[in-house]
């Protein structure tokens, strides 16, 4: 059996088991989704949002990209953010990175990954440059990478607050809260790095939008 055919077989087993446990499972799931959370995570296959949080389908709205970046020109990310915040009315937005992130490690090197990846990793390099004194003081390269993972999560969470999408929601409904977490591949635990309340005082005035 081909590897992709194995996925189809496992899907049938999963669907059959779900129906045995609850005959109305898929009918209920198909009606609507009302997640309280938007998860902006890394594309790494070892960090599935539902599994690491112990949640069920329909409880978390998910966007993933390499190294869980929030880039102000990324229409894909912004469309997900806008839909989750304005239409689904999520209460929390979580940026979740993970220790041992390949994207972060790549950004720490001087290797050429060709134009598109170079452009993407540049965002993480900027995080390193802005925190160079702290990071260069960490002798162990793996510990330094782990700290950059944490700083990157913090930076991306703070970037969310600079969007008009989040600021409009804060003004209209005092939500969502913004969170930055890091997942440990070695122990399966989530670590909170930053939590931001719907408070405009946390944003540098240059990023504030008027009349939104």
How would you describe this structure to a colleague?
By secondary structure, this protein is an alpha/beta fold. The chain contains nine helices and five strands. Helix 3 links the parallel strand 1 and strand 2. The longest helix is centred in the last third of the chain and has 21 residues.
How would you summarize this macromolecular structure in one to three sentences?
With 212 residues, the chain is of the alpha/beta class. 49% of the residues lie in helices and 16% in strands. The model has no long low-confidence stretch (mean pLDDT 96).
Shape: globular
Question: Mind summarizing the main beta sheet?
Answer: 5 strands, mixed
Overall mean pLDDT stands at: 96
Number of helices: 9
Secondary structure elements and pairings:
Elements: H1 3-21, H2 25-31, E1 37-42, H3 49-53, E2 60-65, H4 75-87, E3 92-98, H5 102-108, H6 114-130, H7 132-136, H8 141-161, H9 164-173, E4 177-183, E5 190-196
Parallel strand pairs: 1-2, 1-3, 3-4
Antiparallel strand pairs: 4-5
Helix pairs in contact: 5-6
Enzyme class: lyase
Family: Belongs to the beta-class carbonic anhydrase family.
EC number: 4.2.1.1
Tags for this entry?
212 residues, alpha/beta, five-stranded mixed β-sheet, 9 helices, globular, Carbonic_anhydrase_sf, Carbonic_anhydrase_CS
């Amino acid at each position: 059996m081909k590897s992709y055919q194995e996925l189809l077989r496992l899907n049938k087993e999963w669907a059959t088991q779900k129906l045995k446990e609850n005959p109305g499972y898929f009918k209920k799931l198909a009606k609507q989704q009302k997640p309280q959370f938007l998860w902006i995570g890394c594309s790494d296959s070892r960090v599935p949002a539902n599994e690491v949080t112990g949640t069920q389908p329909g409880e978390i709205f998910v966007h993933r990209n390499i190294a869980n970046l929030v880039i102000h020109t990324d229409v894909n990310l912004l469309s997900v953010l806008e839909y989750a915040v304005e239409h689904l009315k999520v209460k929390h937005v979580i940026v979740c990175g993970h220790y041992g992130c390949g994207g972060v490690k790549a950004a720490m090197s001087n290797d050429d990954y060709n134009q598109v990846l170079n452009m993407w990793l540049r965002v993480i390099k900027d995080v390193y440059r802005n925190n160079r004194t702290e990071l260069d003081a960490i002798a162990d390269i793996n510990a330094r990478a782990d700290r950059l993972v944490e700083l990157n999560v913090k930076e991306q969470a703070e970037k969310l607050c600079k969007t008009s999408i989040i600021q409009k929601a804060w003004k209209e409904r005092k939500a969502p809260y913004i969170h930055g977490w890091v997942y440990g591949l070695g122990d399966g635990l989530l670590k909170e790095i930053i939590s931001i309340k719907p408070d405009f005082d946390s944003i540098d005035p240059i990023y504030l939008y008027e009349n939104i």
